[in-house]
Structures are given as structure tokens and as C-alpha cells.
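G., the chain you wanted modeled:
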Amino acid sequence: MSLTAVLALLVPILGGACIVCAAWPGERSWRADLPLIVALGSGLGVGVTSISFFVWLVAFGPSPGYFVVEGLAVATALGLAVRRVVSDTAPTARPHPPAPDHPSRLGKVLMAGFALAVTTAVITFAYRSAASPHGAWDASMIWNLRARFLFHGGEQWQTAFSNLLGPGTHADYPLLVPGAVARAWSLSGSDTVAVPVLLAAIFTFATAGILVGSLAALRGRSQGMLAGIVLFATLDYTWAGPSQLADVPFAFYVLATLVALALAGAGPRRRSGWLAVAGTSAGLAAWTKNEGLLFVAVLLAVQFVASVRRSLWRYTWPQVAALTLGLAPFLSLVVAFKWGIAPQNDLVAALSLPDILERLTSGWRYGVVMSGLATLLSSFSGWLLSAPLVLVVYLAAVGVRVEAGRREVLVTGALTIGLLLAGYFVVYIITPRDLAWHVETSMYRLNLHVWPSLLFLIFMAARLPEDAVGPRAVPAAH
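Predicted structure as C-alpha cells:
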């Protein structure tokens, strides 16, 4: 594996992690949350450098000058992070909370289980990547193909969006993954297969890092490890990662958005900063897949309604503005790309109002989609029993405990995911493609978009396993 390929991807990880560390709330210890900071910063750094590389390509063409500017930006981010670390260790800084108690017997079992799950996931990823270094069909014919045009195309790089490539290459798809791969290839000097493999590994394990780290910060370490075990035990997820599908990066940004919103509501300070991070992550989701535009629309609608319900109007607008501030630059780029460079989407081009109305009123189409959904829910995860069914049984066994401070996060998160899935359902109903084929070949991937986020919401709501197994005795009142 090329050392330059590794270094090319370490740069955005370092820059993103430094920015997140510099912005970390003062009332929290960055040391305790370091895994979450690195995981969150990894995806944000990769996404932002993908966009900046593409913007530079549009403005100036292929040029090594981009990496000089990027290096200066990363150095600035590193300086901000060092300043944050120094201020945190200064004598006047807020003292760190006391070290947690030694893990219980159950905690040790979960730690061992989580270590086994991570080890198995790493081995599985390495084996699948070695067996198929170019990934699945979508990876080689959509994402990596577009990256090769951006890397090898020179002044003719826009050929990547020609309809002559055929409808199966989906030339209108956003460019987060191709842009990130082409950027790393340009820095390393060759289109080595190591880059898309490493990029897939970053998103596969950073998604788990956000899930585990956020739950550990908000609910406790055992809750985070338990969620991580479930995610890595999901065979559909561990297959999609080394397949280099863009669905895993998309799942990362959906989860990162919900986690940022949860962190915004968890502390008294820097709420606007976390809302801006949520907006940035949502914008990067739109730069990853077309489904990201639907996610952005649903997210804004849910957050606006939630803000109106909980606040006076004069306090609502700053919150919406902070979210929009993080979102606007990336959403503007997606719109500009769709308007000025990308060809029309093949699904949209084949739709007409009479066809849409006819399909919406065809009862058999609903039956096909519901049948596909039932099949997916009964077999999803590759376990002996369906993962959703197992989690329902788990919730019934341990119970649900939703404190007032987490209620809004759970409600708005569930609404966002529910409306996103409802939008997918409508797309299936009106699709101009063969419906049975469309459902069979894509529904399992769409489910991956929300699976890590659903695990986050489920384990945010579930009682802690220690409390369910052996609740602590409550002292009698005197």
C-alpha cells in the first residue's frame, strides 16, 4: 500500500479533527471525547477537502497550487487545536471531571465483545478489500470511474459528466466520493486502488466511531459499546463498507447531523456552533448522494417546526440561521453543480405528471414496495433473527428511559428519519423503472442510510444495561 496514499488521506483527517477539537465545548474535556472528535473530524475533513478540490478544479483547472492552499488551511486548523489544548491545560481552566469508576463485570463483558466486534470487522474489511479491491459495481462504474476522469482528464475533466458514458454511470450524481478519491490521487501522483479502499475504511469505522463516541458521551460507555457491537454485527453494513458504496459515507453524514443536534441540546454553551456543524454535515450529505437533497429538506422542515414549538420567534430565527449558515455553502455548491455541470437525472427525465398520478393511484405498486420492505425487515443484518426484531425485544426487556433533556432530540431525530424513509417510499411508487427490480436492487442500500442513526436513537432511548441487570439501590428518604 502506497505511503503517499495514506498521507494524502491523513491530511483531511488531521484538519477536520483539529477544527472539531478547537470548537469543542469548554465544559467538556476534549481528552475524554477524543475518539468522537477524531471520528467526526475525519468525515467532515474528507468532505470539505472534496468540495474545495472540486471548486479549485472548476475555477483554476488542474493545478498543484491547490495543495499549497490546503496545507496552509490545515496548518491554521492545527494552530487552533493547539490553542484549545493549551487553554484546557492552563491553571485557570475548568478542572476535569473525576475519572469514572472501574467498569462493572457487565462493562468488562461489553468491552470484550466490542473489541471482538472491531477485530472481526477489520479482518472482514481487509479480506473483502483484498478479494475485490475495485469494490462493487457501483464503485467501479460510478464513483471511481468519475474520480478517474477528474484525475486523468486534465483540461477535459468535464467529460466525466457526458451522457455518452451511458445511464448506468449516473453522471448527475454528486461528487463527494469521486472528489475525495481524485484529490488523494492527485496528491499521491497515481490512481492506486489503495485510495478508494482507505477512503471506504475511513467512513466505515468513523461511522462506528461517531455512534460509539456520541452515546458514550451522552449516555455512558456501555451504551456506546453495545451499539457498536450491533453495528459491526450487521453483515449488510460490513459488506457495504469494503464494497466502496457511497451509501456508507451518506450514512455517516446523516448520523453526524443527528449527533451534532443532540450535542447542541446537551450543553449550555456553543449551541449555535453545534447547529452549524449539523448544517455542514447535512450539506455534505447532499454532496454525497442525490438522496441528500431530500434529507436536507426534511431536516430543515423538522428543525424549523421544533424551534417554533419550543421558543418565541425572536429566539427561533438565530437557531435556524446557525443551521442554515453551516448548510448554505455546501447546498449552494450542489445546486450550482446540478444546474451548470451535471446532466439531468435519468429518473426525473423519465417522469411526467400523468405518469406520476397514474402510479400514485395504482394499488399493486404499494403492494410490491411493502412486500420488499417486509422481506428486508425479516432478513436485514444476516442474523438468525431480524435485527429490527431483536432490538424491539431488547427495548422491551431493558425498558425505555427518556429524560426531559433528550426527548426533543429523540422526537426530531425519529421524525427526520421517518420522513426521509417516507420520501424513499414515494420515489419507489413513482419510479419509471421496473418496480420489482428497483426495489430488489436498492432497498437494502437505502436502509443502510439510516441504520446507524436508528441505532443512535434506540440506544439514546434505552435504559442503561447496568440499570436493567442490577439497578442500584435507592437510599431511603429520612
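Confidence is low (pLDDT under 50) at residues 92-100, 472-478.

Shout if anything looks off.
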